[in-house]
Amino acid sequence: MRDFDYVRPATISEALVAAAEPGSAYLAGGTNLLDLMKGGVTSPERIVDITRLPELNRIETLDDGGLRIGALVRNADLAHDPAFAKAYPAVAEALLSGASAQLRNAATAGGNLLQRTRCSYFYDTASACNRREPGSGCSALGGENRLHAILGWSDACIATHPSDFCVPLVALDAVVEIEGKQGRRHVTLEEFHRLPGDTPQRETVLEPGELIVAIRLPAEAASFAAHARYLKMRERTSYAFAVVSAAAALTVRDGKIRAARLALGGVAAKPWRARAAEAVLLGADADEAAFVRAADAALADASPPGDNAFKIELARRIVVRTLMSALAGTPALMPALPASPFSSLPGVRHDA
Amino acid sequence: MTSKTTIPVHLDINGQHHTLELEPRVTLLDALRDRLGLTGTKKGCDHGQCGACTVHVDGERVLACLTLAAQAEGRAITTIEGLAREGEPHPVQTAFLERDAFQCGYCTPGQIMSAVACIREGHAGSDEEIREYMAGNLCRCGAYPHIVAAVRQAALEAAS
Ligand SMILES: Cc1cc2nc3c(=O)[nH]c(=O)nc-3n(C[C@H](O)[C@H](O)[C@H](O)COP(=O)(O)OP(=O)(O)OC[C@H]3O[C@@H](n4cnc5c(N)ncnc54)[C@H](O)[C@@H]3O)c2cc1C
Ligand code: SF4
Ligand code: FES
Ligand code: FES
């Protein structure tokens, strides 16, 4: 790891000043940044350790019934907060399906949004990679690309965004609260991550030096609590990134779908909100036939850039299965294997 | 290498206070092993993937390889060397011995630190739950069935 200057600001304004210097990076849990720095994938000149900013550490209910999650709230603390898990069960389930207990104890809400792709060529500084080094080419096109994107990719980059947390968040209309020298602004999570286009190195709308201070969920997000699930297909039962995942949230009355939210993970460079599928579901009978039509709509624009055509059919099936699970109802107890299609003992315990 | 200077870092490890002069890039794992001679905490992958470097910071399990020493300043750090009380091994250490929960032993300090936290968190209620909540600790020797048995035994003892 290249050495760097280390600063530990005590206030948000001090942090913004410190990070205004070119070559600066914020350090939260460090679980992604330090890993990338060890490999020389990124080499900041100055590390601004934000972990001692108490203002960013809170979960607050807003006057309008919404929720505000401070950027430094740790993944484990959020998932195991009983009130949070009850109101937003799919988000808690997604968090608990990610990484390991040790990593979730360090990883923060803000850092989770900004984690970089797991494309192995991005990590290997000897390989061409447009995302790491603009203009150098994309080694994954024509390389090892079984796990790469099927939606929203470009010839410049076919990487996916690896976060689980972001998938139910984008389905539930989460908003990112950002602070910069110009003051505070709010961006929907749907607009926060960018598709690669010709500039895969520009991954989000965040400007250099800007700080995520919080993530907001609107009041409506809690209205889905009785019918909200996250399902994650992995190459092993646990402790692996998603091959494909989905978050579904429904409101059902008299057998009809009154409101529907659907998002996919592991399929694109951003958490993928499936709005066309939601339109298919709205007003439809709540049954498998409607879910199959929704899955077809969600994947209508999908195409494989390489050896990953299987992910399209897999995603369709995961969408149907997640919607069926959401319709069946959020389990009273968190499954022992959160988000796993192979959870054999549903509701062994609810620890969240 | 650039010519950055060292910084003083105050670390509270197993109840003892240490002041080190460190380059900011030094991880908690390297500080423990290379500077303080506390080699019980192991370096497996150095990339957050294996759990061999698991320690407790303010009572919670984290990975020392993905934590800067400077980040841990002022926090109470516990390593495998700090688990025993008055010469008596910790009940989880005893359970690992009794259940023969290791072969080469390289992953074991991380497994034990993780297991102590897993039980304290209340995540050792069934074998399935233990497997899920211990998933961040890999064992190349494949001692998993005995590890689960040891965690289960220690959890039952803690509950009684
Ligand atoms: C072995 C392993 C397995 C994993 N498995 C999964 C998984 O299954 N699912 C999953 O979703 N994730 C997984 N992760 C990723 C993990 O969730 C992320 O590393 C973590 O969420 C990042 O959070 P952090 O606080 O540690 O971020 P850091 O590493 O501290 O920071 C990440 C990036 O965000 C920036 N940053 C952080 N906070 C802010 C802020 N408030 N404002 C502006 N910039 C900021 C940093 O500068 C850096 O660029 C895994 C990681 C590892 C190592
Ligand atoms: S897919 Fe993207 S991240 Fe991977 S090598 Fe190509 S440009 Fe780099
Ligand atoms: S050495 Fe830290 S997780 Fe492997
Ligand atoms: S006992 Fe050898 S790696 Fe676990």
Strand order of the largest sheet of chain A: 4-5-8-6-7
Low-confidence stretches of chain A: 346-352
What strand order characterises the main sheet of chain B? 2-1-5-3-4
The pLDDT mean of chain A sits at: 96
Mean pLDDT of chain B: 96
Q: Give the structural class of chain A.
A: alpha+beta
Largest interface: A-B, 36 and 39 residues
Count of separate DSSP helical elements of chain B: 5
* CATH class category name of the largest domain in chain A: Alpha Beta
Category by helix and strand content of chain B:
alpha+beta
According to DSSP, the number of beta strands of chain B is 5
Task: Give the biggest sheet of chain A.
Answer: 5 strands, antiparallel
Q: Can you give a write-up of this model?
A:
- The complex is a heterodimer of chains A (352) and B (160).
- With 352 residues, chain A is α+β, with helices and mostly antiparallel strands.
- In chain A, 27% of the residues lie in helices and 18% in strands.
- Chain A contains 13 helices and twelve strands.
- Chain A has helices spanning 12-19, 33-38, 75-79, 82-87, 89-96, 101-106, 109-114, 120-123, 166-171, 189-192, 275-281, 288-298, 310-328; strands at residues 5-7, 24-27, 46-49, 59-61, 67-70, 175-180, 183-188, 211-217, 228-233, 244-253, 256-265, 272-273.
- The model of chain A is unreliable at 346-352 (pLDDT under 50).
- Chain B has five helices and five strands, in the order E-E-H-E-E-E-H-H-H-H.
- Chain B has helices spanning 28-35, 91-98, 108-121, 127-133, 144-159; strands spanning 7-13, 16-22, 54-57, 60-63, 76-78.
- Chain B starts with 6 loop residues before the first strand and ends with a helix.
- The mean pLDDT of chain B is 96.
- The A-B interface holds A 1-6, 8, 27, 29-31, 34-35, 37-38, 47, 49, 51, 76, 99-103, 105-106, 238-239, 336-338, 344-345, 348-349, 351 and B 1-2, 4, 7, 23-25, 27, 46-48, 51, 54, 60-63, 66-68, 70-71, 114, 117-118, 121-123, 125-126, 128-129, 131-137.
- Bound molecules: flavin-adenine dinucleotide, iron/sulfur cluster and FE2/S2 (inorganic) cluster (2 copies).
